[in-house]
Amino acid sequence: MTDEAGEGQPTAASAGVATTAQAAEGMDRPRRRSLRALGIALALAISAVLWEAAKWLAGDPWRLPALGYFHDPPFRVLQFSDRQLPHLWNIAAAFGEPFQRNSDYSLGGFLLDQALYTGQEAVIGFFVGAVIGVTLASVFVHSGLLERAFVPYVVASQTVPIVALAPLIVSGFGRGLISVVIIATYLTFFPVTIAVMRGLRSPDPRAVELMRSYAASRWDVYRKVRLPASLPYLFTALKIAAAASVVGTIIGEGPGGVPNGLGRAILNFNQQYITGPEKLWAAILVAALMGIAFFALVRTAEVLVLGRRGQRQLPA
Amino acid sequence: MLFPLTGGGSTRALDGISLTIQPGEFVSLIGPSGCGKSTLLRIVGDLIRPTSGHVEVNGKTAQQARLDRDYGMVFQAPVLFDWRTVEANVRLPLEVMRTQRGERDRRVREMIELVELGGFLRHYPHQLSGGMQQRVAIARALALQPALLLMDEPFGALDEMTRERLNTEVLRIWTQTRTTVIFVTHSIPEAVFLSTRVVVMSARPGRFTNIVEIDLPQPRTDQTRESERYFELVTEVRESLRGRRGDTSDARLRAEGPAG
């Protein structure tokens, strides 16, 4: 007994909390996913080609005795020399070599360990920061007084560069896990607070009127209306925070004087640059991969949690 | 039910309003934009406080009636939660009231059947058309079996044909549930077709211009829309809207409702 025919197509503009039907996208999900993967692979391939092309045109002479290949580039640009821009295959090879003299431990293994160390700090800090962010946002939305009192400080706190704060935190909490977790927390909670505040306020006021007509308490309104409505905003902030907490952790580890982690590794390889430029590039690559992986994890969680809603997902 | 003499806010939204509505009536409020009909509806629903005057519902104050959940409300937009299925949306007021699960689920299914959306329990709002979403909103408004249903231009955003079909639906639901309905609308045909009485309002400040008894027979069908009496009544309402005011004292007399 359906009468959808008489009611017309799913309309584009029903106002209020319900949103539109997804426009027919002309492409189903698996196809879109493989196209995206193809796009990424293509972008990487082009970057690699450009990298080596630059060195071919204006780098140091190419000497590959194993292949019997010699090439003298027509131009010379300092930035493309083997020291500034090592060949991609040398960077790849470096992963297999010992990470420092008198050691059996490969660079790959070493970097993986450091990445895991940094990673776990970032993850813990991320979760703690997210919880703090949601709590603060919830408090601020329900108390105008507290909001006006504390939000300026919250904002001001983010203007102090992490490079300056890290040594302070480390001197207070020691050169270990705790300090770096605090740094990661610090970088996460701000975007989450601001975004979740917006999200908690996003529901249609008529939805709140409806709840009043059921004689609902403020807690009911929070739990059943505001919190679910804020989830898309939360995830947008979490994606930002994912990237920020990884980067910030690595940066904080350096000046913080933390003996482990990717931050320390990058600092060391920086000092040893002349003896092995590939190692620094390798470390940078691992750091970037870690950030990407983290972001992708959050994005997957977002799709799982929000997937069925059909809300237009907020950009990024 | 007794209505107040009210005012509202720093602009006089409403002035000198007095109305009594009998249980089981279907009363439409019609008037130009800004005449305060939505304000009046919200005052009845205790979503706004009047600056003076009072509202009584079944002998209770508006606030008490709200706390006792005597109202159901439907807005012009469905205002459904898009993270909830159709079933979960209709369930919302029962959740707030902490109804027992068995009773709750039974009531939800009953309401969804009433609006004839039985096959769409697991759908999400964005998968439904505007008319269907509005039907879910109506089912939700009826979930607590309210004595009074407040509808604020619920079909305003829909096309004419859907609107006419839903008018018939609303009448059917009204007959079946025997709720009292206060229905705000811009549409003269709709007001005449649905109501037992049409209250015509004018703006700035909002007041009652005229009250038209609709003596069309029940049940009302598409045939009714083509009857002569229907057109006469539509004309009467239209002329009242145009400002051919009846005596205000006349209006107050008729405000007391059929058989007082």
Note the main attributes of this structure.
heterodimer, A: about 325 residues, mainly alpha, 2 strands, elongated, disordered C terminus, B: about 260 residues, alpha/beta, six-stranded mixed sheet, 9 helices, about 40% helix, globular
Outline of the structure:
Chain A is mainly alpha-helical.
Architecture overview:
The complex is a heterodimer of chains A (316) and B (260). Chain A is mainly α and 316 residues long. Chain A has eleven helices and two strands; from the N terminus they run ααββααααααααα. A two-stranded antiparallel ribbon of chain A has the order 1-2. In chain A, strand 1 (62-64) and strand 2 (69-71) form a beta hairpin. Chain A is elongated and about 85 Å long. Chain A starts with a helix and ends in a 10-residue tail after the last helix. In chain A, 33% of the residues are buried. The model of chain A is unreliable at 1-24 and 312-316 (pLDDT under 50). Chain B has 260 residues and is α/β, with parallel strands linked by helices. Chain B has helices at residues 37-44, 62-67, 86-96, 101-114, 130-142, 160-177, 188-194, 228-241, 248-254, and strands spanning 26-30, 56-57, 60-61, 71-74, 148-152, 180-185, 197-202, 207-213. In chain B, the strands form two sheets. Chain B has a six-stranded mixed β-sheet with strand order 4-5-6-1-7-8, sandwiched between helices. A two-stranded antiparallel ribbon of chain B has the order 2-3. In chain B, helix 6 links the parallel strand 5 (148-152) and strand 6 (180-185). Mean pLDDT of chain B is 83; it is low at 245-254 and 256-260. The chains are: A mainly alpha (316), B alpha/beta (260).
Secondary-structure blueprint of this entry?
The complex is a heterodimer of chains A (316) and B (260).
Chain A: H1 4-7, H2 29-58, E1 62-64, E2 69-71, H3 88-94, H4 107-142, H5 144-157, H6 162-173, H7 177-200, H8 205-213, H9 218-256, H10 262-271, H11 277-306
Chain B: E1 26-30, H1 37-44, E2 56-57, E3 60-61, H2 62-67, E4 71-74, H3 86-96, H4 101-114, H5 130-142, E5 148-152, H6 160-177, E6 180-185, H7 188-194, E7 197-202, E8 207-213, H8 228-241, H9 248-254
Parallel strand pairs in B: 1-6, 1-7, 4-5, 5-6
Antiparallel strand pairs in B: 2-3, 7-8
